[in-house]
Amino acid sequence: MENEKKISKMKMSTQDAVWGYVFLSPWILGMVFFMGGPIIFSLILAFCKWDMITPINFVGMDNFVKMFSDMRFLHSMYNTFYYTIFSVPLGIIGSIMVALLMNQKWKSVRLLRTIYYLPSVTAGVASAIIWMWLLNPDFGLINYGLSILGIKGPQWMADEVWAKPAFIIMSLWGVGGNMIIYLAGLQGIPRQLYEAAEIDGAGMMQKFRYVTLPMLTPVIFFNLIMSIVWSFQIFTQVYVMTGGQGGPADSTLVMVLYIYQQAFKFHNMGYASAIAWVLFIIILLFTMLQFKISGGWVHYEGELKK
Amino acid sequence: MRKVFLILASVLAAAALVFFVGCKGGAGLGGTTIRFMYWGDTSEIQIIKTMVEKFEKETGVKVSAERAPSGPPYMEKVMTEFAGGSAPDVLFVEVNNFKEFASKGVLEDLTPYLEKDTTMKKSDFYDAIIDRFTVDGSLYVIPRDIAPICVVYYNKTMFDEAGVKYPKENWNWNDMLKIAKRFVKKDANGVPTQYGYVDDWPLWEAFVFSNGGAMVDNVKHPTKCVMDSKADIEAIQFRSDLINKWGVTPSPSQMTAMGGMGTSDMFVSQRVAMFMSGIWKTPLFRSQINNFDWDVVPFPRGNKGTIAYPTGGSGYAIVKSSKNKEMAWKLVTYLAGADGERKLAETGLSQPAMKKIAESDAFLDGKKPLNKKMLLKAVDYVKFEPLMPEWEEINVSMIAPAFDKIWNGKDKAAKVLKKIVPEINENYFSK
């Protein structure tokens, strides 16, 4: 009797697993059929020279060696890191703040949530064009706002010093997407934790510091990883707003834009593939590093502290 | 359990089906169909469609004409098809993207086809464009049009109101500067509201050529970049001075400040008196301008009297891997033939590469711009970009970012060119 129960239980779990794979199959198959080939091919190409027309030549490590002396590649890496270092923390702080506001029991809070979320469902090209207008040095809304405060706004996209900050400010436009995840996280925090804190005499700030924040760390961790992955791959906005050039004076030339230029403008497919793999390895390393140090600050409910 | 596997199997089967059918789609089209790739605006598409239909009716051969947006998207599509082993039979090629194909041995030598042909001969076309498409004695492209980038459109009404005499054909840079200064206007805060001269995009090549400068030592077989010469430095600095010293041309940031207004919009909205581009702006200006009179003059000569212009232009090529070369040739003669060129000339969009049609009233139609005939002489002075596939990369990665600083007034031309030219030579010409 006891045994039979065990067997049927095991069957249940295999069955669950199979169903899991069935539901995953569109992605797995899509990955294998549509991306698997190109991924493997690009890895091979990374060690080759190919202009898309004449036959492929194996060149060994040449492409990787070239990167170290390619000033534009190094510059694109600098630009990408610059963007990531500022946009990721700002994005996380911004979206938590918005999520806290949107978690209040206001009358029209649902409408506000929708408004904040809207930019996340706007097409990238469309929002890039909106931002070109907002950032217009003469009659853009941003410089108009600054002029009310008595500040003369910079030339933004036309100035090599201000072009990168302009993209960082633009990235805050997307806080609504992460806000939804934080909001779900906030609403998943059990009420009794706050009640217990109140009994202990905790104020607003203490409740935030000792209840909300720790309970939110798994969500922050998830968003941190995703944001870093995404910001390393910034492309659409830069492509649209600089006409594919990454100007002025290469100040917004980010890695993916450089890959695009090498591949589709200069037809150096091998070199472009090599850079793409370097970018992949950078992102992989960052993600692994984060998992490594996450034990120190991420708090999982139901996890046993050692 | 069985049901689950059944579902899994059918999902797999469906996916495989989609995959293999998708694969076949591309290759299955060959045979009696001629595949032709091109770009063009709406009026060009209409002409090409007419010619293709005529061809299909007379030969019974089907043509699949595929269009892509001009510029980088067109090249992306063409290159991807080459890479995928499914290159088209006939290809629309432009004088500048020709460099991507010229040295790669992928285009058919059309010299023997043209020699045998009864409908057209080499001497029908302008020498300059035939010469551009000829490499080491082989002609790879049958030209359709030539487009000297030397067309200075000017607003006659603005000239009249300001009491400024119209530019003369033999004017030089200094004359242009003098005229341009007369049109600069500023508002109370000193922000310019009107300019004297603007080019369609930073057309520094026009200044370099007309100052007797060059980009490389030999356009067909370049061995080094010579842009650090005195003539080149002077020319680039002059264009920068137009912006930063004299304020007659808007800087890139002033352009941005105009809120996405393109340079040709500035001309249409009378915020600039002279606008430099190619003849292809004609249909646009004919339809958009109704409140002032305008005409064209050739780009000024350099101060030493040199006349030379950069140029556009295009034509049709046959891809070497084509299995229907005879039919492909026939299609090319329809597309580049006298009929097609005449129709194109009538739109005002381009100057036919065939001399007799450029000199006919299909092109010289008596409509604005009245001084269009100046282009018949201009074709004798055109110069081309270096014929090397790497030039695009040199331009985008070395020249454009460095020149941004010159146009924004942060650096002098001499300093920038003396720095980047040795780098260009080391990176691209040292082999």
Share of β-strand residues of chain A: under 5%
The radius of gyration of chain A is 24 Å
Mean pLDDT of chain B: 89
Q: Stretches of chain A where pLDDT falls below 50 for ≥5 residues?
A: none
Please outline the major beta sheet of chain B: 7 strands, mixed
N-to-C series of helices and strands of chain A: HEEHHHHHHHHHHHH
The CATH topology annotation of the largest domain in chain A reads as MetI-like fold
Number of domains of chain B: 2
Most extensive interface: A-B, 41 and 42 residues
Any idea what the CATH architecture of the largest domain in chain A is? Orthogonal Bundle
The SS-based structural class of chain A is mainly alpha
Task: Characterise the protein shown here.
- The complex is a heterodimer of chains A (306) and B (431).
- By secondary structure, chain A is mostly helical.
- Helices cover 72% and strands 1% of the residues of chain A.
- Chain A contains 13 helices and two strands.
- The radius of gyration of chain A is 24 Å and the shape is globular.
- The two termini of chain A are 38 Å apart.
- In chain B, strands 1, 2, 3, 6, 12, 13 and 14 form a seven-stranded mixed beta sheet that branches. In chain B, strands 8-9-10-7-11 form a five-stranded mixed beta sheet.
- The termini of chain B are far apart.
- The A-B interface holds A 15, 18-19, 21-22, 25-26, 29, 33, 51-54, 72, 132-133, 136-139, 155-160, 244-250, 253, 261, 264-269 and B 1, 4-5, 7-8, 11-12, 15, 19, 72, 75-76, 79-80, 82-83, 100-101, 104-106, 191, 252-253, 255-260, 389-390, 392-393, 396-397, 400-402, 404-405, 408.
Topology:
The complex is a heterodimer of chains A (306) and B (431).
Chain A: H1 2-45, E1 48-49, E2 57-58, H2 62-69, H3 71-102, H4 109-121, H5 124-134, H6 141-148, H7 163-171, H8 175-187, H9 191-199, H10 204-232, H11 236-241, H12 255-265, H13 269-294
Antiparallel strand pairs in A: 1-2
Chain B: H1 2-27, E1 33-38, H2 42-59, E2 62-67, H3 72-83, E3 90-94, H4 98-102, H5 111-116, H6 127-132, E4 134-135, E5 138-139, E6 142-148, E7 151-155, H7 156-162, H8 173-181, E8 185-186, E9 192-199, H9 204-210, H10 230-244, H11 252-257, H12 263-268, E10 272-277, H13 282-288, E11 294-298, E12 309-318, H14 325-336, H15 338-347, E13 351-352, H16 355-358, H17 374-378, E14 382-383, H18 391-407, H19 413-428
Parallel strand pairs in B: 1-2, 1-3, 9-10, 12-14
Antiparallel strand pairs in B: 3-12, 4-5, 6-12, 6-13, 7-10, 7-11, 8-9
